[in-house]
């Protein structure tokens, strides 16, 4: 029987690329996002059994509806990928958009992580990948303050749950993908242009799947970004924050 994977935020970018690569590996899929048309179009292109599940994950009831739809099914892989960012001075950015970001990047991811890990523990196996960001590995990101804070939450939650599962001898895997810039629709949504060149979504997903095979808890795709993140431990916290500030300011001034 083919393996079954669920991908949130599958209507574009990294999520759509997970769908392409997992379908090529023989997975059957469920694709989740708000834009039904995009999901239908992608499902029609893929050479696998592919269901779509249009849902606005900023709504708790929609997260529950997704968990309910999966209740009687075995899920081998769940990719918690839906998310977005926003750039600007914290005193000026839109509160409603930030609260929606907390709802999607933190609240929905939290609800789905708990529900799916409980389910996988009952199943006896499974893998869950949370899509964080290299932003979540840094102490703070001035001019993208809320986004960095949400991604720190993702990294912290994932590392803690991974350690709990490991110490309990569980066969369930949980990991966190922490890319730097990736060329997707992220920028358009965040209303910015990257200050650093991005990697392709295809490369990002190939490295993510390779990291999962090696059961890595934190996966940073790309040798440059991985080296940068490893070296960041040697840099004082205040300097890292000012480096992040410099990059974010360059984005909004472009
Ligand atoms: N691109 C980067 O540089 C980068 C770097 C590090 C981490 N990331 C992370 O990677 C993930 C994917 O982003 P991306 O770069 O692929 O950007 P993207 O192309 O804009 O994709 C974002 C996806 O999230 C979905 N989404 C947003 N709000 C949603 C909601 N309320 N309910 C359901 N789905 C929702 C969008 O679908 P709909 O609009 O159809 O709902 C879309 O499929 C995000 O978590 C992002 O933070 C991106």
Descriptive notes:
The protein has one domain (4-253): Rossmann fold (3-Layer(aba) Sandwich). Helix 1 (13-24) crosses helix 7 (201-213) and helix 4 (95-123) runs parallel beside helix 5. The chain contains 9 helices and 9 strands. With 254 residues, it is α/β, with parallel strands linked by helices. It has helices spanning 13-24, 36-45, 60-70, 95-123, 145-167, 186-190, 201-213, 223-231, 237-253, and strands at 4-8, 28-33, 50-54, 77-80, 126-131, 172-177, 182-183, 199-200, 218-219. The chain is globular, with a radius of gyration of 17 Å. Bound molecules: NADP nicotinamide-adenine-dinucleotide phosphate (NAP).
Radius of gyration, Cα only, in angstroms? 17 Å
| CATH architecture grouping | 3-Layer(aba) Sandwich
Strand content: 5-15%
Q: CATH superfamily, called what?
A: NAD(P)-binding Rossmann-like Domain
CATH topology: Rossmann fold
What is the terminal-to-terminal distance?
Answer: 50 Å
Q: Strand count, sense and closure of the main sheet? A: 7 strands, parallel
Which secondary-structure class do the elements indicate?
Answer: alpha/beta
User: What is the overall shape?
Assistant: globular
Question: Order of SSEs, N→C?
Answer: EHEHEHEHEHEEHEHEHH
Question: What's the helical proportion of residues?
Answer: 40-55%
Task: Please tally the β strands and state the result.
Answer: 9
Low-confidence segments, given as residue ranges, are none
């Amino acid at each position: 029987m083919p393996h079954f994977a669920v991908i949130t935020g599958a209507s574009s970018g990294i999520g759509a690329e997970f769908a392409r690569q997992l379908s090529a590996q023989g997975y059957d899929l469920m694709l989740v996002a708000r834009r039904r048309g995009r999901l239908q179009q992608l499902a029609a292109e893929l050479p696998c059994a592919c269901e779509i599940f249009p849902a606005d994950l900023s709504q708790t009831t929609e997260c529950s509806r997704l968990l309910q739809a999966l209740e009687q099914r075995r899920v081998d892989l769940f990719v918690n990928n839906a998310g977005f960012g926003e750039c600007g001075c914290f005193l000026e950015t839109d509160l409603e958009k930030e609260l929606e970001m907390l709802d999607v990047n933190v609240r929905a991811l939290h609800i789905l992580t708990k529900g799916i890990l409980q389910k996988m523990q009952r199943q006896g196996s499974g893998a869950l990948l949370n899509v964080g960001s290299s932003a979540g590995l840094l102490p703070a990101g001035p001019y993208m303050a809320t986004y960095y804070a949400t991604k720190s939450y993702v990294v912290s939650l994932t590392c803690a749950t991974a350690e709990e599962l490991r110490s309990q001898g569980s066969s369930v895997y949980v990991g966190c993908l922490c890319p730097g810039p990736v060329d997707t629709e992220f920028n358009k949504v965040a209303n910015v242009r990257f200050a650093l060149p991005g990697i392709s979504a295809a490369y990002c997903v190939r490295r993510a799947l390779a990291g999962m095979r090696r059961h890595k808890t934190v996966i940073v795709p790309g040798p440059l970004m991985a080296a940068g993140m490893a070296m960041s431990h040697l840099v004082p916290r205040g300097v890292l924050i000012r480096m992040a500030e410099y990059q974010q300011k360059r984005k909004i001034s472009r």
